[in-house]
Amino acid sequence: MRRSKARIVSQLFIGVSTLAVLGAPGFAAAQDAASTVGQPGPSEIQDQPVVTEPEVDDVVVTGIRASLREAVDIKRDGQGVVDAISAEDIGKFPDTNLAESLQRITGVSIDRSNGEGSTVTVRGFGPEYNLVTLNGRQMPTATLGDGASAPASRSFDFANLASEGISAVEVYKTGRAAVPSGGIGSSINIRTPRPLDKPGMRGSIAAKGVYDTSRNEGDPITPEVSGIFSTTFADDRIGVLLSGAYQRRKASVNSASVGFRDGFLGDPAANAAANNTWGELSPAGTNVTNRPSGSDVYEIPQSAAYDLIDIDRERINGQLVLQARPTDSLTATVDFTYSRNKVEARDSSVGIWFNFGDTSSAWTDGPNAGPLFFSENFAPGGLLNPTTSTGKDLSYSGALTANQTENKSLGGNLTWEAPGGVTVSLDAHHSTAESKPTNDYGSSTSIGTAVFGVASQSINFENDLPILSYTMSPGIDPLNAGLVTPTGNSFRNAYFKDEINQVQLKGRYDHEGDFLDSIDAGFSFVENKVRSAYGFIQNETWGGVGPASSVPDDLFELVSLPDKFKGVQGSGAAGMIPSFYTFNFERMADLLESQYQVCSNPGAGEAAPGTCLASFTTDRRLTEKTISPYIQFNTKFELAGRRAHLIAGVRYDQTVIDSTALVPIPTGTRWTGANEFAINFAGADFTRFKGSYQNWLPAVDFDIEPLDDVKLRASYSHTITRADYGSLQGGRSIDTNPRIGGGTGSQGNPGLVPYKSKNIDFSAEWYYGRESYISVGYFNKDVSNFIGNTLINTPAFDLRNPGAGPRYQAAVAALGTTDGVRVRDYILRNFPASSLVTGTTPDGFLTGDIFGLPEDPLYNFQITQPFNSDQTANIHGWEFAIQHQFWNTGFGTILNYTIVRGDATYNNTESPYVGQFALTGLSDSANAVLYYDKSGLQARVAYNWRDGFYAGGAFDPTYVEAYGQFDASASYEFVPGLTAFVEAINLTGESRRGHRRSERFVTFSQPGYARYSGGLRFTF
Questions:
Q1: Closest CA to 10 of 876, 965, 922
Q2: CA nearest to 658, candidates 709, 620, 614, 704
Q3: Calpha distance 501→410 (Å, rounded)
Q4: By the number of CB atoms within 10 A of the CB, which of 214, 316, 386, 417 ranks highest?
């Protein structure tokens, strides 16, 4: 299987790693890496020697070698564990995506969304554990999350920012008093250029075309244009800088997915004791081969689908910077940064759902038994319509996600270099991030259609790609558009806005004594105001909202499937669904609204007049106010005759939280389909809670040069990461679709305190050449205050289970079966006062809603509530790096390998009824780069690899498998300032895959495709 391929390739790089990212002086030069308190968002990296490059017509020309040389200087002369990437030239970053560049740093790996780098993991800590700042300012974040709940994440999405307007990115892996708090994994500072950093007129403009081979159809070539212009005048005392980027990308992400039930034990008695028997395997020998037994753990597929997702992404970035230096000691800066990332994703899918009736399956050996295949038959006996089966559906669904994230930041800075070695900087900004839908349907929507008459369906798990197949009853053609019936639908509407107002006062005193070199001190006030809202409208008409004849045949388009998964093992296997029908989402939605009022009169929820935009039923408001004074002493001295430095400081954080939440009030329940239930809501109310906490965060950095060109470092620090917004929200919410065995819900806790980590770092570095070094580092993190979730089993709002009780028992007694379709038909016919008929299936069974009654048993809900557990975890690892220049050949290499280990790992053999604490995202990673830079020709081939990792799930874990990717780029400067370039991303088209406890139980499988671009860049 392909998941071993990436691991094999990675072995080439074990034992070596790179810190030297392809970045350095360029436009920002050494100023971007200097400790310049006088700039907005000063870097905490100490002053570096300026690398002087030859000038042609007052234009600084730099390349890969100059970039790597500067990277060596930054690493060697910096204090603590800090890595930096800088622009290779004005308007030219090493990669087209910031996340893709960051993954080249030792210990940094990324997660991809829609085929692009999106979020970062540092030393095993995922995106929610890393703080991102822009020019030293805490930035708001906005994302709409999974689309099926109120957004809650603090994770920064690097896909919002184009790299062309960035001068440098700094990654602080250990805490320092002068660095803002909030990142256990790291603090990442994105720096943008300033005109007075480098006086004179300069700039660049670039244009390229992008060819994405993943496109399912249509013209895949899209444009990208970027430019930056900077000038100074009035004797270089006034400067203006303007940058902008426009990027359009069209791509496709095709995915096979398998949904799952809760895990089971091989012992039926244990499942019964846990009230978890629905979907359990039949006894051994009853259509089950090698049934798991005893303490074996197994999981049952609930659903499966092939999704063809077409993406249209448009990204706009811009920045305007005005600077004035009326005197040599006073600098004023005003800057405005804007970004907008608009993404439209159209998902067409074919899927199957299991009812757990007449099933058959085969399994691997335990203790983690995985399925080889899982099938279900639907017998046609006793039907009103003898030409069809029980009315089981083959689902053809369409979904539309059309959202945009808009970021705005207005800031000002005033810096005074006072007499006596004192520098004072006052910085303030108002920044917002807002995510919302861009259409009248919502942020995450889905419309179902189906062909009824499935006789059997199956999933084969023996390949990397799950093979979905089905057979239809005689006379039923699933490719007859005239049989496609509209069914259920949902329109979800999410909104997220984060507003940050921050004021920072920083000062530096340069003492320059024999021991005390300087003192840094400062104060920060941050007001973080977050609004997260969500609402939905839903129609549980899964048996059909109307007849197939209500939808014209020309609305459907037939598409093939096997060719959409090329390169994934199993694609085109015998029995794989060969094709299915897709449809235009907007046209279908408007048709259903005109005929059945699915939006203006839905089964659940309500929408704004004339739209399908659901009114918010969950509306969370949170305000965090944090004050943070700090002081830091920087010393230099000799120890045993060798030069040494000691930096020691402390930061104090005090945060007050005020959280309010509007939550919907449930009023009743409905049984809407064979295994579908829904909750009715009416009205909502606000609840309010408060919380507070404070932390002292010490930090100490020490380094010494025991030998020439050799540096040893040691660091100790405390760092924190704040809880996600969803955990801090007040109020209890109940999920809208319970199952027959019970429902779920959640409740927040504003009293949560942050995660806290005590960090130790050691490193040794040997700089044996101007552009070459070897380094090895060790890190250890002891983390406490983990946020766990406790499950509270309780009734809620007096909600009743209509899938049990007297009516259900009467139907079973009369029919002699528990088949959901027949039982529902009996209740709908015989209990009209407590039900509502909405239609019939093609075989004549009634469909509709069966309402919960007081005599029905109470629904049990598992309410999830976060709390600070006494659980602790240790994360430790090694970072190895080598950067080597092969004399004056122009060739060089950069290699790195990071080992990450932790004591909180998931035990797949443990009972699924025991929740486990485990750290997500822990995995080894490696990079290898071979480059050439000589005589105007630059070329680079890079390989990035990340090992498989645990992705989450306290009771039912999921894993993402190992993944490796080759990228390449080349450029040639024909004449000074004019360069042609080509780039390739995922050159070999590597695919991605995830699984559950057993590698057989695939959760997703996605083919990979290469993306190419080429263009021209003019620099002046």
A1: 965
A2: 620
A3: 10
A4: 214
* Residue 823 CB-half CA count within 13 A: 23
- Cα diameter, the chain: 97
Q: How far apart, in whole angstroms, are the C-alpha atoms of residue 345 and residue 309?
A: 6
Tokens 């907008």 — which residue? 340
Other CB atoms within 10 Å distance of the CB of residue 402 = 20
In order of 269, 490, 505, 518, 629, the CA distances from 521 in angstroms are 64, 54, 8, 10, 8
3-state secondary structure of 53: coil
Strands (E), 213-300: 221-233, 238-260, 264-265, 288-289, 297-298
Tokens standing for 887? Answer: 């004399």
More reliable by pLDDT, 657 or 46 = 657
State both tokens at 598: 């699915």
Q: 993 has which bridge partners?
A: 1005
Give the other-Cβ count within 10 Å of 44's Cβ.
22
pTM score, whole prediction: 0.83
As a whole number, mean pLDDT of residues 112-140 equals 85
Q: Quick one: which of 437, 434, 428, 426 has its CA closest to 408?
A: 434
Q: Residue 31 is encoded by which pair of tokens?
A: 């100023």
- And the tokens for 893? 């290499």
Residue 18: the pLDDT is: 31
What number of other Cβ atoms are within 10 A of residue 902's Cβ? 18
Q: Decide: residue 826, CB within 10 A, 0-12 exposed, 13-18 middle, 19+ buried.
A: buried
Count other C-beta atoms under 10 Å from residue 905's C-beta.
Answer: 14
Q: Are 366 and 296 in contact (CB under 8 A)?
A: yes
670 forms beta bridges with 678, 851
Task: Dump pLDDT digits (tens) for 616-664.
Answer: 888 889 999 999 999 999 999 999 999 999 999 999 999 999 998 887 7
User: H or E stretch including 812?
Assistant: helix 805-815
197 pLDDT exceeds 70?
yes
Determine the Cα–Cα distance for residues 1006 and 307; give it in Å rounded to an integer.
Answer: 10
| pLDDT at site 735 | 83
Assign 555 to helix, strand or coil: helix
Distance CA 515, CA 354 (A): 73
Which tens digits make up the pLDDT trace of 672-725?
Answer: 987 788 998 887 778 788 899 999 999 999 999 999 999 999 999 999 999 988
Q: What is the pLDDT of residue 90?
A: 55
* 486 within 8 A of 847, measured Cβ to Cβ: no
Lowest mean pLDDT among 370-374, 570-574, 1000-1004: 570-574
In order of 60, 93, 375, the CA distances from 1020 in angstroms are 9, 17, 66
User: How far is the C-alpha of 345 from the C-alpha of 402, rounded, in Å?
Assistant: 6
Give the integer Cα–Cα distance in Å for 955 and 996.
Answer: 11
User: What letter does residue 92 receive in the DSSP assignment?
Assistant: B
Q: What separation, in Å, do the N-terminal and C-terminal C-alpha atoms of the chain show?
A: 50
Q: Which carries the bigger pLDDT value, residue 497 or residue 919?
A: 497
Between residues 20 and 346, which one has the greater pLDDT?
346
Strands (DSSP E) contained in 294-329 are 297-298, 301-327
Q: Would you state the structure tokens that stand for residue 1006, as one six-digit string? A: 């996605």
Specify the DSSP class assigned to residue 483: G
Amino acid (one-letter) located at 731:
G
For tokens 């407590």, name the residue.
834
Distance of CA 215 to the CA centre of its chain: 22
